[in-house]
């Protein structure tokens, strides 16, 4: 996993102060990394339009223009006269090299957005809104320097934002790049080294970006085993049995030795999944909430009192009783609407879905502060997993997963690992990665995936 920071300016200052680098060295590294990328990826006859603002983001662009000049057909468009010292210096250098400055935007082969970086601090005026809209309308390959212009430090769009194919982020990953809103604007994200190794540049973090290698699949080590070795998951069925069936199939495919659906009447379910009226004697984990609908408090309480690891999903986030059971045994998998109900039940906040989506990191941190031992997975375009005041981002999911039943597969995968003895945070991280990475293996198109297709892909990880 990689470290992620809310702000990077203090890290830059530290490198200048403690390791005697200069702002100029950092900037040269920033522009050089984009230069090298363009040099490798594109032929030399391509036109490149670099759009520069008045601060150091613009200065990065002017330095980049200097590096690209004579290698490519480079044009600079100045949005606002250089204001920062570095922007003035880089402007002077670019001018002295006779790089062409243009006064009209055009559809270049490549556009590099260096209008605003982390310094964006107010609403965009009409001219800049129109300018970004024009850039977005061009069919060029679009690069963003540090962050797509128009996205603020909270990852929100103030008026409009540049839509890039790739973003070069300077020095460290920023949380703003991983808001759900930003996901349609950042494109691929590349981390740029600013002159010292990232382990020196970056201090301790409490937010992390998950990588494929963080996924631990439930491979079986010992040949001398039996079904009981791999746990017995009990899924509490509710009014909509389909949700439990999907979860049970996902759980079975992900290694649980036995899976039982606990239901009050006989159901027509998959033959290898067991069914029972009661929780099994040898149960090792419970999943509850998916398709639950109404349930008597007394019945719910009896289940919640059982001392097994549990996944709480879906309808359970509307039951006030659960707030008494949010301990280290519990994994919560709400989507945003369910999470605002949980925030209300726990007296943390009474907010709208929009307020949550604009501040996902903030409300996950608030929840974590009150319930540090519980594992939380907040669903979304970028999934946030949290425990012990640390947040883990899973950014691999895509719109292919926006389907009824995708969440039931996820809860089944997590519960399966819990049943097999994984610690709750590790179970949640590995299952969430398996869920999203499996979905990426579905290549037909991005609209037709169903839960069974997803489970098939999980089997092939
Ligand atoms: N500080 C350093 O050592 C480094 C800085 N770097 C670059 O510097 C950037 C940050 O530079 P700055 O702090 O100068 O900030 P920016 O270049 O992002 O923008 C700041 C300027 O834009 C103006 N501005 C902000 N919002 C505006 C709006 N809505 N409409 C009109 N004008 C607006 C501000 O008044 C300010 O003059 C980073 O994103 C990165 O690209 C990199 O070169 C790496 C090294
Ligand atoms: N656009 C998207 N990008 C990434 N992941 C998504 C997207 N849409 C949905 N998902 C994922 O799909 C799952 C949907 O779960 P949920 O909304 O609970 O559906 P259901 O309860 O019908 O199964 C979650 O894991 C969510 O993170
Ligand atoms: K930018």
TrEMBL record:
Amino acids binding AMP: 407
YjeF N-terminal domain residues: 8-202
Family named by the database record: Belongs to the NnrE/AIBP family. In the N-terminal section; belongs to the NnrE/AIBP family.
PANTHER family per record: ATP-DEPENDENT (S)-NAD(P)H-HYDRATE DEHYDRATASE, ATP-DEPENDENT (S)-NAD(P)H-HYDRATE DEHYDRATASE FAMILY MEMBER
The UniProt subunit note reads as follows: Homotetramer.
List the NCBIfam families hit by this protein, alphabetically: yjeF_cterm, yjeF_nterm
**What is the protein's given name?**
Bifunctional NAD(P)H-hydrate repair enzyme
Question: What organism is listed for this UniProt entry?
Answer: Aliarcobacter trophiarum LMG 25534
Q: Which gene encodes it?
A: nnrD
């Amino acid at each position: 996993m990689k470290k992620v920071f809310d702000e990077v300016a203090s890290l830059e200052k530290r490198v200048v102060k403690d390791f005697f680098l200069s702002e100029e060295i950092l900037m040269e590294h920033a522009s050089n990394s984009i230069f090298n990328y363009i040099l490798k990826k594109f032929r030399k006859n391509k036109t490149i339009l670099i759009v520069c603002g008045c601060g150091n983001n613009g200065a990065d662009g002017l330095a980049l223009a200097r590096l690209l000049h004579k290698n490519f057909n480079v044009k600079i468009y100045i949005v606002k006269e250089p204001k920062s010292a570095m922007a003035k210096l880089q402007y002077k250098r670019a001018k002295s090299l006779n790089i062409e400055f243009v006064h009209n935007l055009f559809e270049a082969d490549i556009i590099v957005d260096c209008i605003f970086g982390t310094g964006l601090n107010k609403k965009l005026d009409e001219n800049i809104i129109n300018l970004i809209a024009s850039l977005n309308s061009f069919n060029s390959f679009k690069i963003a320097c540090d962050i797509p212009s128009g996205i603020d430090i909270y990852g929100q769009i103030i008026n409009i934002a540049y839509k890039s194919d790739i973003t070069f982020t300077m020095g460290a990953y920023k949380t703003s790049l991983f808001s759900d809103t930003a996901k349609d604007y950042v494109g691929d994200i590349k981390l740029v080294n600013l002159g010292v190794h990232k382990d020196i540049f970056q201090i301790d973090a409490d937010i992390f970006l998950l990588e494929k290698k963080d996924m631990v699949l439930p491979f079986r080590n010992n040949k001398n085993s039996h079904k009981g070795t791999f746990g017995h998951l009990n899924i509490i069925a509710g009014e909509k049995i389909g949700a439990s069936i999907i979860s049970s199939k996902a759980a079975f495919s992900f290694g649980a030795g036995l899976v039982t659906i606990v239901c009050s009447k006989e159901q027509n379910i998959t033959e290898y999944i067991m069914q029972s009226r009661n929780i099994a004697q040898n149960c090792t984990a419970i999943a509850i909430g998916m398709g639950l609908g109404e349930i008597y408090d007394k019945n719910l309480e009896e289940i919640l009192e059982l001392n097994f690891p549990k996944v709480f999903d879906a309808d359970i986030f509307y039951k006030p009783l659960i707030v008494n059971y949010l301990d280290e045994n519990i994994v919560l998998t709400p989507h945003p609407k369910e999470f605002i109900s949980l925030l209300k039940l726990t007296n943390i906040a009474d907010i709208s879905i929009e307020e949550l989506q604009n501040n996902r990191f903030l409300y996950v941190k608030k929840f974590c502060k009150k319930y540090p031992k519980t594992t939380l997975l907040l669903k979304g375009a970028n999934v946030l997993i949290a425990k012990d005041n640390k947040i883990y981002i899973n950014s691999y999911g895509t719109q292919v997963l926006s389907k009824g039943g995708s969440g039931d597969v996820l809860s089944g995968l997590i519960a399966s690992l819990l049943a097999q003895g994984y610690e709750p945070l590790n179970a949640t991280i590995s299952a969430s990665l398996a869920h999203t990475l499996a979905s990426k293996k579905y290549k037909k198109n991005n609209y037709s995936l169903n839960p069974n297709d997803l489970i098939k892909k999980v089997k092939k990880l």
